[in-house]
């Protein structure tokens, strides 16, 4: 996975609550067995009308808003446990999603796929929406090492929580296997130390 340390970018404001995984990636697109092409169908039923034309009223089709940060309303990623939702968000180009609450399974799936879910207070989320809607070029800074998110050029910032293990994986670009491989030397030393304790050299 790509390393994640500090992200500074513009954001797309999806000011809708209770966005579930079926809205993120509709069930009819779940037949694929790999991650290719999922970004094309992110929010498919909101981005496009039934005749296949773009829904100009949907925020992802608004040319004013671009960037790798998705700012969403409360309770993002609720509904089914499909990992495909995280695949679609990642494939579309989003590196982080900000909300005042995430469904636990979605949060885990996002972290496992290199997407950082940043949970903030409702008050801070409202400030984000206000800033982005007022100026689509407004940048947001997310510092994973400091666990802090801020509206660039202002003093408006807030800390966020993340599982220490997942933080280590994101900063180093590890998946679970990569993390284990990175610990091989420590594992070998531990095994050698224990083996020495169980089978001490015979004293003459």
Descriptive account of the structure:
- The protein is α/β, with parallel strands linked by helices and 204 residues long.
- The protein has helices spanning 21-24, 44-47, 84-92, 104-112, 122-134, 164-172, 176-182, 184-198; strands spanning 6-14, 69-72, 96-99, 116-119, 139-143, 148-151, 157-159.
- The termini are far apart.
Sum this structure up briefly.
With 204 residues, the protein is of the alpha/beta class. The chain is 34% helix and 16% strand. The mean pLDDT is 91.
How would a textbook summarize the main sheet? 7 strands, mixed
**Mean pLDDT across every amino acid position:** 91
Strand content: 15-25%
Query: What sort of overall outline do the alpha carbons produce when their principal axes are compared?
Result: globular
Query: By helix and strand content, what is the structural category?
Result: alpha/beta
Count all strands and give the number: 7
Strand order of the largest sheet: 4-3-2-1-5-6-7
Helix count from the secondary structure assignment:
8
The helix content is 25-40%
Order of helices and strands: EHHEHEHEHEEEHHH
Question: For the terminal residues, how far apart are their CA atoms?
Answer: 54 Å
Low-confidence stretches: none
Radius of gyration: 21 Å
Topology diagram in text:
Elements: E1 6-14, H1 21-24, H2 44-47, E2 69-72, H3 84-92, E3 96-99, H4 104-112, E4 116-119, H5 122-134, E5 139-143, E6 148-151, E7 157-159, H6 164-172, H7 176-182, H8 184-198
Parallel strand pairs: 1-2, 2-3, 3-4
Antiparallel strand pairs: 1-5, 5-6, 6-7
């Amino acid at each position: 996975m790509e390393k994640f340390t500090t992200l500074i970018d513009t954001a797309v404001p999806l000011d809708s609550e209770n966005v579930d995984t079926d809205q993120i990636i509709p069930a009819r697109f779940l037949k694929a067995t790999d991650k290719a092409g999922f970004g094309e169908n992110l929010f498919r039923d909101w981005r496009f009308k039934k005749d296949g034309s773009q829904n100009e009223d949907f925020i992802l089709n608004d040319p004013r808003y671009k960037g790798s940060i998705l700012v969403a309303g409360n309770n993002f990623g609720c509904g089914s446990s499909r990992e495909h939702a995280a695949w679609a968000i990642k494939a579309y180009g989003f590196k982080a999603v900000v909300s005042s609450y995430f469904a636990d399974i979605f949060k885990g799936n996002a972290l496992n796929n290199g997407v950082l879910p940043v949970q903030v207070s409702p008050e801070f989320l409202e400030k984000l929406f206000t800033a982005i809607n007022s100026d689509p070029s407004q940048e947001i800074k997310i510092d994973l090492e400091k666990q802090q998110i801020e509206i660039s050029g202002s003093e408006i910032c807030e800390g966020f929580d993340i599982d220490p293990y997942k933080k280590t994986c994101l900063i180093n670009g590890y998946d679970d296997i990569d993390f284990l491989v990175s610990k091989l030397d420590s594992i070998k030393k531990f095994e050698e130390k224990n083996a020495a304790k169980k089978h001490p050299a015979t004293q003459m």
